[in-house]
Amino acid sequence: MMVRSRTRAGAMAIRARGAVGRYVQQTETTLTGRLWSRLLEMEFLDRAVALAAKAFVALLPLLVLIAALSPDGFRHQLLDAVAYRFGIEGDAFDTVRQAFARPDQTRKASGVLSALLTLAFAVSFTTAMQRVYLRAWRRPPGGSFRNKGRGALWIAGVLTWLMIITLVRDVLQGFTGSMLTWVFGMIGSILLWWWTARLMVRGEVHWRALLPTAVTMGVGTAVYTLAASVWMPDVVASHFAQFGAFGITQSLVAWFTGLALLAVTAAALGPAIAEGNSGLARWMHAGHPTVLQDGAAPPLPAPTRPMRLSDAFARGPDRETPRPVSDDTEHPDLTLF
Fold first, then answer.
1. Range of the domain at 102
2. Is 302 helix (H, G, I), strand (E, B) or coil?
3. 3-state secondary structure 124-170
């Protein structure tokens, strides 16, 4: 009797594994399956954490430096915009304001070398972000010196956009003004991320193919910011009550991590759609056999084995084998220049 029961259990397990295998094969051809495989290939959790960490240590000091060099009126508007985006208020807002409200001390402490190092850290963030886009589209590494120029150009573009949206928020007041600012910000964000994607892939992918990523990031960041205005104040207040100023940094890292996950997912969505046979995929190809620009190098080969969940943490098998889609040799994660 026991032997028969074990035989039945073994047969059921075999059938279950077969059903799971068939389901996996079916989903691999869908957009969801292709997106998940591409995310695993990109080691999305590992990349998102690295991207969030670099954003925190690179972009916030740059904002403080920009605020110190700005006129008083714009500095206060910038502080309000940063506080709104991160959901900082109350006593935590007073603590953050101290970092922005002492421009004289900041200017005295920030010499030319310090300013250049702050900019270098900011550009290093763009290197990490470019690596995400290159891996998403399986582009070969290269263009190290020009990549730094693209990174500096992106920083300038983002700062310009931040100034514009800050001024718009100051002009449009009230509930109607807030809604118009939010819509304007979402549309502008879509255009900004469309340009960002094109810049990060070095112009090697058609504009059309990059639009789904831009729309996902534009709409996603608008919704994410709106949602953060609801849950972030409680998180910041709780962490600030427990850990003081250090609690604010914890909350900001959590905010950046969520945004980084969105950025990595949006980057993977474009090639996942382009690999399909939908109407949108055909539109992205614009009648061409590939979504690559004429003269661009062919894409790197796809992984030779099925992706596993451990790959999301950069802990998959065969880690000693060089990854075909990696740009890590040229730009390791800890490289600043």
1. 39-292
2. coil
3. HHHHHHHHHHHHHCCCCCCCHHHHHHHHHHHHHHHHHHHHHHHHHHH
- Are 106 and 49 contacting, i.e. CB atoms less than 8 angstroms apart? no
Domain count of the fold of the chain: 1
Domain membership flag for residue 321 = no
Separation CA 151–CA 59 (nearest Å): 13
What sign results for the dihedral spanned by CA atoms 263, 265, 271, 277? Answer: negative
Q: Which is higher by pLDDT, 48 or 334?
A: 48
Sign of torsion over alpha carbons 119, 49, 216, 304: positive
The answer to whether residue 330 sits within a structural domain is no
pLDDT band at 264; cut points 50, 70, 90: very high
Q: Is residue 313 part of a domain?
A: no
Yes or no: say if 125 and 53 are a contact pair by the CB < 8 Å rule: no
Please answer whether residues 119 and 267 qualify as being in contact, where contact means their C-beta atoms are separated by less than 8 angstroms: no
DSSP symbols for 38-50: HHHHTTHHHHHHH
Which runs of consecutive H residues, i.e. helices, occur in the chain?
2-28, 31-41, 44-69, 72-86, 90-100, 103-109, 112-136, 144-171, 174-200, 207-243, 245-274, 279-285
**Residue 252 domain-assigned (yes or no):** yes
The pLDDT value given to residue 70: 65
pLDDT digits (tens, 9 = 90+) for 101-134: 555 555 555 556 667 777 777 888 899 999 999 9
Strand, helix or coil for residue 207: helix
Rounded CA separation 204/283 (Å): 17
